[in-house]
## 1
Amino acid sequence: MSDDYIRLIPSDKQWQPKPEAAEAATSYVAQLFSGPQDDVEEVEAEFYDQVTLIDAGENTTKISCLNCGGDIAVDWFFDLIEEKGEAFGNLDFEVPCCGAVVALDSLRYDWPVGFARFEICAMNPTRAKYELDSAELAEVARLLQHPVTQILAHY
Ligand SMILES: [Zn+2]
């Protein structure tokens, strides 16, 4: 059994909303998915002490380095997560392709991942469209009082 998630994060990786704003935005997202079938399993807001990887699970299959243009094995990335955990704080790491120290959020991922200290996560969302459209994202941003990005994850 696999799970899909929509993970909504502030565009600034250090930024955190006020609790009331987080609650308002979370309720809004929850009502987007409330339907006759009660489709979504849960919508949760999460605050993180440190900058945390908002990964896309199996959706990420290719990573490339903007310093040398080379490919980085996805395994390297997942091993790093295993070693460090998902709370990174500092995102600078030496990459295997060219040995440069680069920030993980400067790498290019074939399927976007994010880094954040806050997220709103919807588990197993089922709608006509899987992801939020631009108007819905704008509404989440308005409630949160910060621009948001969505990461679509599959595990
Ligand atoms: Zn490189």
## 2
Amino acid sequence: MNFNLTPEQTEFQTAVRRFAEKHLKAGALARAHSDDYPTDVAQLMAAQGLLGITIAEADGGQGGSLMDAVIAIETVASVCPRSADVVQAGNFGAIRVLAEYGSPLQKEKYLQPLLAGKALIAVGMTEPGAGSAVTELVTSATPDGEGFRVNGSKIFTTHGPHADVFLTYVRFGPGVKGIGSVLIETKMDGVTLGKRSRFTSGEEWVEIFFNNVYVPKDMVVLGEGGFKKQIAGFNVERLGNTARSLALGRYAYEEAREWAMQRKQFGRLLCEFQGLQWKFADMRIKLDAAQLLLYRAATNADTGFPSPTETAIAKAYCNQTGFDVSNEAMQVLGGMGYSQESLVEYCMRRCRGWMIAGGSIEILKNRIAEAVFDRTFSQRPN
Ligand SMILES: Cc1cc2nc3c(=O)[nH]c(=O)nc-3n(C[C@H](O)[C@H](O)[C@H](O)COP(=O)(O)OP(=O)(O)OC[C@H]3O[C@@H](n4cnc5c(N)ncnc54)[C@H](O)[C@@H]3O)c2cc1C
């Protein structure tokens, strides 16, 4: 067992850091507070080979491993936390499901512009009545001629107001087996966006309505019975969320560490007060433990999909750590930490959301408990 990155991984990390320092450092604060999706960053990353890291070269990707993608997201976040979202969108989310299960036509139409940083895909899974119990989704796909008519709505979709296309979870028939997914473009007839709202993180979301939207059959990604495959792909998305939680916690920690080494009160540096030293020791312990859990899940997945249990353990722990550490870092920076002059408060707000998004900590713990006892526990009434 070796706890160090390989020479190739270290070289990759150095190259990503150099790229981030050169292109992303200057605008990091402004980017975090902008409503726009950073398309300019996406295109720079595409040119640098940071989109599609785990996607096969034959499909226009880099043919790398999940661990490479984790290194990229962590390294970018350490310089510009907001730009880590672009690494996420270009490597961990719906793009990976599309690369894995999409048809050649779907890949040509959607994957190529996504990999070039010229389009954005979002995941429409959650509905007003189907959150943690996602299999209760009711958005339906009913056969109509050579395709399907989709009716329903989605909420909380990340990048919903900016996306060009949605990987939309739909119901072709009853039960879990009836769930699959289709690609729906924002500009299609019958797609409308509701009132804009905001998460605590500042990100905007909209309810997306599908009113009798015609979806040709060649835009079905996974048909009936595809739910399990979809969730296997979704575990990759979870690891992206996991990596960002940890990385933003670490960003806030580094800011607090620098601050504690130069800010003086009572004639002493903050780092000389034992009450703060112990905070830093606790933060460091959590960050190191979280890092190991993340790397285990990513390394064991190699180029495939990560294990659901290892992903759940890593995500639950990194989500909590990212929030706890950024919250403590804010305390160390005092009023400056609570101010939008630093990115610490941004890191804290973003990390809070990931404790709910993409499988809340409670739902992940349910999953872990099933692994502990090697049996399933139905969450539904008898
Ligand atoms: C920042 C952010 C980004 C998101 N991005 C997307 C996206 O891109 N696409 C998308 O489709 N969705 C997205 N979501 C939605 C997200 O997946 C849901 O919010 C999440 O699944 C929880 O569903 P809910 O909000 O309806 O809460 P509910 O399911 O109503 O849960 C409420 C609370 O009860 C707890 N709970 C529920 N069931 C159980 C149980 N069986 N045992 C113990 N506790 C339980 C939950 O953990 C939670 O704390 C996003 C959400 C956030 C906050």
